User: Fold these one by one.
Assistant:
Number 1:
Amino acid sequence: MHTESIDRWVHDHTFGQDRKKSAERRTLVVSIVTVLTMVVEILAGVAFGSMALLADGLHMGSHASALAISVFAYRFTRAHAKDARFNFGTGKVNSLAAFASATVLALIALAMAWESVVRFLSPVPIGFDQAILVAVIGLVVNGACLAILGGHGPTHEKGVGERDEDAHHVHVDHSLRSAYLHVLADALTSVLAIFALLAGKYLGQQWLDPFMGLVGAALVVHWSRGLLRSSARVLLDLQAPDEVREAIRKSIESEGDNRVYDLHVWSVGPGIYAAEVAIVSSRPLDPDSYYSLLPKELGLVHATFETHLCAPHPHIREAL
């Protein structure tokens, strides 16, 4: 067979990963805003001798590092989308970056919890006015960043615009979700800090400051656990949700006496899947016919079919 005769069957595995997404631009803007705020707070802390400003700036720096991971993931995914060394494209880089970012988020939460415990045992004087100002500034910046990201973050493990093994098929962008979580964690820290500082200043309840630190740390750990779990499902090639596999099975078995006896469906990127389908039938179809039966809304970008011939079922034999 001449090489040119098979060209029409050859396809790439970019699956749209080479296109620049709006989520990448929004994450980049948020990353720049976070870095600029971090620099201003650190410089102001050094200039005015404020530990509150300095600490908040360093804390924001840890989130800036995590946001940089998301930005790098988007750019790496696009730059290497056509690299043949990646069997199914670079879609999983998104989940790998999210897993790393979620790990950083969990470590930040543990550091928050440790510092809160230390302050419970050894209280330190609090400059309420200055600390409240820092918290308010942080909240305003984080609110603006959340608006830029467009409300794509989770409210629980599954998340808004997110799906897990029990959810319906929707687009999943782990990098965007991780960026949102880091900004949301910062905003939560600011809200809890403002509440605790106001209570400490006007009611004398200084114990609320470390207590709210523990509350915030617990919520952040819960969010990071959800992101670790969902991104790990992609990295470990876990089976797609039951409803996705069942939709594939029903579509194939709707034609003739085709029966699916082995089915593997896994994620190869945000909202896209690959599948291997083993079929037994007395009258197997060609691959194109099987592919045309698959539901288009499932996001299947790569499907391999294995067919085995069997004797026709009695009711089919009678029809013949």
Number 2:
Amino acid sequence: MNILLQKMLAKADPTQVEGLSRFFKTGKGQYGEGDKFLGIKVPVTRDVVKECWRETGMEHLEECIRSEYHEVRLAALLSLVEIFRHADKKSTARPEATVSKTQPAITAAQMTREACVQFYLAHTDFINNWDLVDLSCYPLLGEWLLDKDRSLLYELARSGKAIWEQRIGMVSTMTFVRHGQLTDTFNIADILLLHPHDLIQKAVGWLLREAGKKDKSALDEFMQPRYKSMPRTMLRYAIEKFPEDERQRYLAR
């Protein structure tokens, strides 16, 4: 039995469906066109995940991530993050992650985490709205890449098959920013600097703002040759925490 799916379906609240559908732009021609909702808000989904993730296997996640319902896909992603996060704790190690006798250096935790990342990357077609991206990519993909080559994120930013993959490439760098590693954020922001979609512009501006909180001089250095060509939305997000007089100078120019 897929406990995660059953508990999510049981939390459906039809009175919330219309509002959520409108908020996530599911109308014709909008970025979330055709998506369906059960009417479950994020805190409720988090409570279900907290209760169920230990009993949720990859086969259950496969069923949930392919659901027509937005909140069930989110529950799958949040559960995946929990499995990844707790992989080094013996009591929650996944049964799929067994250590090969020929590769004793690869721990069960490492294998579990890699399996989570591979699952995530194999199912990006279903990570198809901004909240699904933002609540899953950096605590999973960003954490995984902290001590690894990060070219994957550059590939997603340059040639992601949808704006959601491009957003994954950008927002995953949040983990690096939190560790004081800003180079990839600036580099990927540069790749996406002239992107026409506002959801990418907002993501780039948001991450630049976060990088600026760590090192304002580095953000100033990035902005100076670029801000005049930035989309207005991106610029506003990036300089949101600047002193008001400085912010107005950027906007006026």
Number 3:
Amino acid sequence: MTVDVLSKLIEVELKSVQWKRQPANLYEPIAYILSLGGKRMRPLLVLLGYSLFKNDPEKILKPALAVEVFHNFTLIHDDIMDKAPIRRGQPTVHEKWNETIAILSGDTMMVKAYELLVQVEPKYLARAIDLFNTCATEVCEGQQLDMNFEGQAEVHVDEYLEMIRLKTAVLLGFSLELGALLAGASEEQQQQLYALGIDLGMSFQLMDDHLDTFGDDTFGKQIGGDIRSNKKTFLLISALEHAKESNARALKQWIHTTGNDEEKVKEVTRIFLAEKIDELSRNKIQHFADQAMTILNELPGDASVKKILMGYIHQLNQRVA
């Protein structure tokens, strides 16, 4: 199967999921955020992890969707915490409705994610729930670390990388691992796919950081949003660690500047470029992408599916080209 075929299976199955109609302001936000699209990367990785070992991925569409519903639940709550106005080029749920509705709609999605996840073969159920619980807890830990960083005067690159491993990468690792588990792959193979997902997730999140500053209108989020909010990303942390004295001083001044967002974005971006932080960012992205490719090359499984995964990793990595 191709990525396009798998993606269509996911979309058809997602549209078949039934949401209650009342109260409307609880369920409409759920339909709204799921209708905004996105890459559907996580359910796709579940199906690809499964397809390495078996050729009937339509059998596990519901647990694959569990990962997508859970992911969108985290987006609703993250957007509230980040006070983000835009998600996938459209107003965020809390902007379109309000924070109370967004919180409750997100909570409902978490319950629905469990309803979908438990629709696996009984012999895999306990392990699937255990892996999901571990992953979901780590995602929350990552989000809390992200929030903690806002009040910390100093954050180091290694601390930031651990935060995004938890907040973003573990869910991609779980997605591939879940697919392998449901296909009956060995524990070693499941762990290899989990490690592949971690590297892919690290690369992906670092690209998001990069595109927040160096992207264009196709990114689907407000360009320069991280700079405006002084978010401690790989770019900002690296710039603070490596910038020459004059640029470091100017950068710290801009961090404490409010009310001049457009000029702030322009000048901080200029400092990033002057200090070659954009190149440092690309190199770090490539580092994790290369590690993912190395693991994939060593994996057993269907050669055609491995080729699809290789192409997918390459495609994601080219977002910063």
